[in-house]
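// run 5 | inverse folding | seed 20
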């Protein structure tokens, strides 16, 4: 039965459901961790610490890739987001849709470029130190160093910029427009009832 009081794992007409909420916040934490470890590891001298950070970075990035695939499948299997608040200007709706499409693209592009880079330079990924992954792309040191490495760095900064814009927009909706856009993705929404 699916009525106004039945809790559901799916999105409703007024709020995101637990599956979307958990995937959203888990990905947010993993992406932030991958980004900050990535930025801090590249200038470390050769040391066990650098080696550890590189591994953690790759594992976080692969986890982002897997969860993004799960999220895309969830979204593509009919779990549409609740509609945007009534009266939202057309340009904001367009910006909202545009950033969401760009996010989905970057959730795949950034980790795949990192994976392609490390494969190209001949350092395969062993996920969590336990699961060896195949190479993603050709072994070609020049391609890795001259093309994939800078592309991975640039793409990760583009993703970070999108995150900043996304957070600023969410805070504006919450504190200025007060239209409930942030609350419906908040894990502790008072009651996750169906609309
Ligand atoms: C959402 C996922 C990811 C994010 C946000 C991310 C972000 C970053 C950032 C910010 C850097 C530093 C760039 C610089 O300032 O030079 C970096 C470097 C690096 N990333 Fe990622 N990354 C992700 C996924 C991956 C994955 C999946 C792999 C490999 C399996 C990977 C492999 C690397 C490597 C090897 C470097 C070091 C490049 C160098 O030697 O300078 N990354 N990443």
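// decoded
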């Amino acid at each position: 039965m699916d009525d106004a009081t039945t809790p559901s794992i799916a999105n409703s007409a007024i709020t995101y459901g637990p599956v979307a909420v958990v995937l959203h916040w888990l990905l947010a934490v993993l992406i932030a961790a991958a980004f900050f470890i990535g930025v801090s590891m590249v200038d470390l001298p050769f040391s066990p610490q650098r080696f550890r950070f590189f591994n953690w970075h790759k594992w976080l990035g692969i986890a982002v890739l897997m969860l993004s695939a799960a999220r895309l499948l969830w979204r593509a299997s009919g779990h549409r987001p609740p509609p945007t608040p009534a009266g939202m200007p057309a340009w904001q709706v367009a910006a909202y849709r545009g950033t969401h499409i760009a996010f989905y693209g970057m959730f795949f592009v950034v980790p795949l470029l990192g994976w392609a880079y490390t494969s190209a330079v001949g350092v395969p990924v062993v996920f969590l130190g336990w699961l060896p992954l195949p190479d993603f792309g050709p072994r070609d040191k020049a391609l890795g160093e001259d093309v994939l490495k800078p592309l991975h760095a640039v793409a990760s900064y583009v993703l970070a910029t999108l995150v900043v814009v996304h957070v600023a927009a969410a805070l504006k909706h919450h504190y200025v427009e007060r239209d409930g856009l942030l609350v419906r993705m908040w894990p502790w929404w008072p009651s996750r009832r169906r609309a």
